[in-house]
Amino acid sequence: xxxxxxxxxxxxxxxxxxxxxxxxxxxxxxxxxxxxxxxxxxxxxxxxxxxxxxxxxxxxxxxxxxxxxxxxxxxxxxxxxxxxxxxxxxxxxxxxxxxxxxxxxxxxxxxxxxxxxxxxxxxxxxxxxxxxxxxxxxxxxxxxxxxxxxxxxxxxxxxxxxxxxxxxxxxxxxxxxxxxxxxxxxxxxxxxxxxxxxxxxxxxxxxxxxxxxxxxxxxxxxxxxxxxxxxxxxxxxxxxxxxxxxxxxxxxxxxxxxxxxxxxxxxxxxxxxxxxxxxxxxxxxxxxxxxxxxxxxxxxxxxxxxxxxxxxxxxxxxxxxxxxxxxxxxxxxxxxxxxxxxxxxxxxxxxxxxxxxxxxxxxxxxxxxxxxxxxxxxxxxxxxxxxxxxxxxxxxxxxxxxxxxxxxxxxxxxxxxxxxxxxxxxxxxxxxxxxxxxxxxxxxxxxxxxxxxxxxxxxxxxxxxxxxxxxxxxxxxxxxxxxxxxxxxxxxxxxxxxxxxxxxxxxxxxxxxxxxxxxxxxxxxxxxxxxxxxxxxxxxxxxxxxxxxxxxxxxxxxxxxxxxxxxxxxxxxxxxxxxxxxxxxxxxxxxxxxxxxxxx
Length: 600
Hints:
The chain has about 600 residues and is α/β, with parallel strands linked by helices. Helix 14 crosses helix 15. It starts with about 30 loop residues before the first helix and ends with a strand.
């Protein structure tokens, strides 16, 4: 279709039903009428500012037969949208509404799509019988990424009166060995974020007899075998769909090698146990996949008790069955794990759990961090510890002042979309602000302070020697902060004095002029008299030295200043006027108050 063969004449609008010309050779009358319906509907809903993209989406939602011609529809849709918008603009939205009512009155009843609240339902879930699991590797504490698993699984358990198994997947003694302290850290962090402890707690390393018994059962049942091929040789055979020579060995031979593996008679890399699968499977990763391997490296918890350790796909599959897991929520990058484990379940005659997936979420500010990388950086002295505020660990976020309910709400709101997305921490910060604002008292923090002397001699009245400021501007925290003015010495930020040209309003107090070349702030009016800039300030008598530490990129930047000393509490989060939220880290008797910036 060319633009020449599809010409359209813009109508003269008279308030009557909309009539447009369309080339019947290009589009049938039903298609034109359907496009027109959605163009008018969109113009009515958005006050004459209908959008072609929205109309096209609605059209294709109704007419699946047109989806293959979406590109060709563009000109027709744009023309009808322009006409509908022109009708609404020239004769009013009610004229467009009347035109729609004359042809498609049912379209006036369309409701805008409602935003989903909470998580979608679990498939085949029975209340009281749902069992989920959260299975971190304890090679470090939980991170912001782990928080997704805690929030989603614990919320589903809450929805269905179910249980969550907290399982430590700690059977890798070599590449990602567990950190002994991490077990307690993770249990505490899970409880903090979920709002309750996990229902069942398991350390896989303490369940080794269960996995080894199932491996032996697999070998005895001849749906597994001990493979002595090198990794490179096996890969070549697997990719060619050729049978590994070890695959046809007898059960007795496999069990003999299995015993040798467990007795430490075979070196690391000398043998693996494989699950027999169809060698014609399209995905090479599923063909005779490895289930257990030899590791002689001592385990930090159980030491040298075992020479053979399960790989994660085998260990996780066995434990899910043992614990009666009904639903697994995992990343879509683990779909192969689901396929491998389903094949194993078929061998054992078990039913695989219902599985749901989510896509990757990249947080701009923390794109390059991994637990292993952070651990190495901490050991090298690049970070002060797991709670260094520059890190995306829950320990660091909690130290800064992030609220568990806010993190939980963010992940639940995001849900289980399989779409890969990239977001900024500002999105999470907005959830946190909504959660904490109502309970955070205000305080004044003056950076790079400039000392001024108030002069109210030319302005009668005024509040006297003290003033009261609200603890919270909306009254969410009742009460007030009493400020003593003392001898009239006050502090403002030097930049405020420079930027306002000498005339400014001290917030909730007075309009003042700063005399050029002096440090005198002359009161001009107690009430707001003009549009001069409003600045925060602080009576010198109320001020304490303070240091505010910010995270800027991968750096910690310290800003020094004077903090309002009214009822400071260590660990409390306050909102600093015109600065943002901050957590009071320490209140030393002989040094500055230490503040850690949270967010704006």
